[in-house]
Amino acid sequence: MTEQVELKPLRHRDIRRCVEIEKVLFPGDSPWSAAAFRAELDSGAYYVGAFTMSGLVGYAGLAVVGRPGEYEASLHTIGVDPRHQGNGIGTLLLEAILDRADELRAPVFLEVRTDNAVALALYEKYGFSKLGVRRRYYQPSGADAYTMGRPPVAVAGEAAR
């Protein structure tokens, strides 16, 4: 990693920058709006931002449903400004999200474009496997998505299930 990155909770003041990054990352589909990010933060979902000296350069969000012992988590979004990609920031964000899911002993699910080889390799490296295909999931492009899942991971010192 070439620049210092600090992970911090995402705040409402960061939404405008998230929307800017979304528009660059997902121009052929429906990038998330400020209202979508606001709703996620207001719902209590776990969101983390990657900050450098130049400000917010990436973000990731995890929604959790269920009750203790029966939690299920969903990676709702992860994005890194293209000018900062390839520096390990996406990996840091994913690790932060997975750490939170592991604290809750929750399986994690996500959708990813079938043509996003970089993301697929990253998710597979972290224990995700393909569960199915959602045809025409991304709109308006109509791109397909894989549904992927990762089982709950035992916390250090705890026997695996």
What's the structural blueprint in terms of helices and strands?
Layout: E1 6-9, H1 15-25, H2 34-42, E2 46-52, E3 55-65, E4 72-80, H3 89-103, E5 108-113, H4 117-125, E6 129-134, E7 145-150
Parallel strand pairs: 4-5
Antiparallel strand pairs: 1-2, 2-3, 3-4, 5-7, 6-7
Poorly predicted parts: none
In the CATH scheme, the class would be: Alpha Beta
Give the number of domains.
Answer: 1
The name CATH uses for the topology is Aminopeptidase
Mean pLDDT: 91
Instruction: Tell me the major beta sheet.
Output: 7 strands, mixed
Quick gist of this model?
It comes from Amycolatopsis suaedae. It is built from four helices and seven strands.
Walk me through the structure.
This protein is an alpha+beta fold and 161 residues long. The protein has one domain (6-150): Aminopeptidase (3-Layer(aba) Sandwich), CATH 3.40.630.30. Helices cover 27% and strands 30% of the residues. The chain is built from 4 helices and 7 strands, in the order βααβββαβαββ. The chain has a 7-stranded mixed β-sheet, sandwiched between helices. Helix 3 (89-103) links the parallel strand 4 and strand 5 (108-113).
